[in-house]
Structures are given as structure tokens and as C-alpha cells.
Amino acid sequence: MTDRSKRLLLKWASLAAVSGASLLAGCGKKEEAAPAAPAASAAAAPASVAAPEPLKIGFIYVGPVGDAGWTFAHDNGRKHIEAKFGDKIKTSFVEKVPEGPDAERVIRDLVAQGNKLIFATSFGYGDAMEKVAKDHPDVFFEHATGYKTLPNLRVYEGRFYEDAYLAGIVAGKMTKSNTLGFVGSFPIPEVMRNLNAYLLGAQSVNPKARLKVVWVSSWFDPPKETEAATTLLNGGADVLLQNTDSSAVLQAAEKAGKYAFGWDSDMSAYAPKAHLGSAVLNWGVYYEKAVNDVLNKTWKTEDTKWGTKEGMNDFVKINEVVPEDVKKLVETAKAGLKDGSVAVFKGPLVDNTGKEVLAKDVVADDAWNSKVNFFLKGVEGKPPAGK
Predict the structure, then answer these.
(1) How far apart are alpha carbons 297 and 241 in whole angstroms?
(2) How many helices (H) and strands (E) does the chain have?
(3) What is the pTM of this model?
(4) Rounded to an integer, what is the distance from CA 70 to the centroid of its chain?
(5) What pairs with residue 181 in β-bridges?
(6) Confidence band (pLDDT; 50, 70, 90) for 10?
């Protein structure tokens, strides 16, 4: 090897040594610059707060949700609170539950499923609700049209008779025979008020109006309702109202070329020619209050009776065959119900035996309303024994 070759080899060896040292130095800097682990004494980040469990709410219905009437209206109320409260609540329902022992079983099952607010939506559920409520003081129970209360059981209802009165105004003007018909479910005060109010509304515009009643002993039985309606129509009635839950009465009237009303919800689509208007119930306004009471921990035992004033009752979809002056009479009466200037039951009133049941100028209170078991003057026949 020449001297020149030796010198070149030493030069490259020297350069390689320097480069290696530089790389090692660079690696050392990266280790020194790495962020230090947080000290053990540093405060831990707060854990995320779990969302509260939704309030579970159960409904028990006497009829099918598709009955177009009573149960349909209650289920619309259930849907209203679902939309209003979103994921704060979770609802469920059981439909077509007979009044009696089955009701108690279903209500207990709703409690077992974790429901903390339970609505029973028919009068005949009262005994079952009372029994279950006594066994579960941590659950809130609400009974529609009932009267029994406990520290965790309260009752609510609409002033349905206000709608019946408005329907009566239309019926009194539209009848040609002066004979009206009413298909009744059970002769309880709620139903007795409604049929009497229907006649009073009619007599307010037509003193000659009279009322015939046929009972079906059921809330929902379309064949029986049709049969009762046919009996009334054959007996000369030409405008019908019902306190049952299907559209059968309205459809029977249309088939006969007569008139009738929707009850509990808008039934105009079922018999558009016969339909004069619908007496509707907006249960959602009360269900919203009840849910708020539980969520805000302000729930207390009450007997709530709401009507036109509070937006629970309304009379809608008046048929175009009804004259404008009659529509104005209805709107005026509705405004009076809202501001208190119109009272459906105001004395003097006598029953159909001639006995005074409300003195002159006296306006009926809720105590009087709860004891109506008579037919007012102008209603044919005698009331059957109560349910």
C-alpha cells in the first residue's frame, strides 16, 4: 500500500468516527426532549357523569289503540309526552285490558317492569289501582275518571259534558224530527252528565228537542253500538251522539242518511256525510303536567278536572252543511265555557219525573256533577241501575 493510499484510508476512518459520534449525540437529545410523565400528585381528570335513567311510564288501555275514540285519544296523549320529553322518559302501554281481575294483574306487571308512573285510563280500573298502589308506595298512580285517592294515587278527567253541550247546539238546529239519540255505555255519573248536557245544548236553541237513550253495557263493542244506533234511528232519532269508543254509531247514521258526531277524537274521516262535528279530548295537556310533577318532585294527590278552559276538551271539524249562524252559536258558547260565562248545568233544572235537581240560578259544582244519576226533563225512560 502506498503512502497516499494509507492517508486516504485514515481520512475516511476518521470521518466515519465523527459521523457515528454525531448520530449518537442526536439520539441522546431526543431522549432528553421527551415529555416527562405527570407527577403522581397531579389531579386526575374528572370522570364523565352518567346520564340519569329515563322515567319509565306505563299506560293501561281498555280498548285497542286503533279504536278511533277513547283509547286512541289517550295514546295520542302518550305520544305527545314522548315528543315533549324525549329521552327523559320511556313509555309503554297494554291495550284491550278488561276491567276487573285482569287489570290488577297487568298493573302489577307494569310495576315489575320498573314503571314509576302508571296511568289507568278507564273508570273500572279503580279497585285494581287502589290495591296495587297500597303495595307500592314508591310508584305514582293516576286513574282517569276515578274517585279513589291515596298518597300515591290521584285522579283526573276532562269535562266531557262541555263537548256534549256544544254538540247538542248543532243537533238542536239540525234535527228535523226533534228527536235525538244517545248510545250509552254504562249509567255512571260521567255518562249521565254527558247525555243530559247533550239535551241541554239542544234545548238551548230548540226547546222542542227530546232525547232517547239505548245502553250497550260496554265501552267498545262496535256490533252492539251499531245495533243500538239502528234502534234509535228506527225510533225516529235523526241526530245521534254516543259515549262509546268506536266510530260505529257515526257509520250507522251515515248508512241511514242521518247525522251523528265523533266522540273522544276526530272521526270525520269515517263517515264524512253524517259527521256534524267531533267532541275531542286532548289528554296530552294533562299527561305533560303529570310527567313534570314527577320529574320536578312536585307530584301530590289531587283530583284534577280540566275542560275547554284548559284545552283538554274541544269541539272540532264542524261539517260545511251546518249553517254559519249555528257555527257562530257554537263558537260563542265555546268562548263562554273558556271564560266562565257559560255553565252547562245551571238551575232551575228538573228531572224527567218533575223533581227539582238544581235550584234556580245555582251553578252545579263538582260535588253535584259526581252524583248525577237521573235523566233531565226531555230524556225518555228511566235510568238503569248503576254499573
Answers:
(1) 41
(2) 11, 14
(3) 0.84
(4) 9
(5) 212, 240
(6) very low
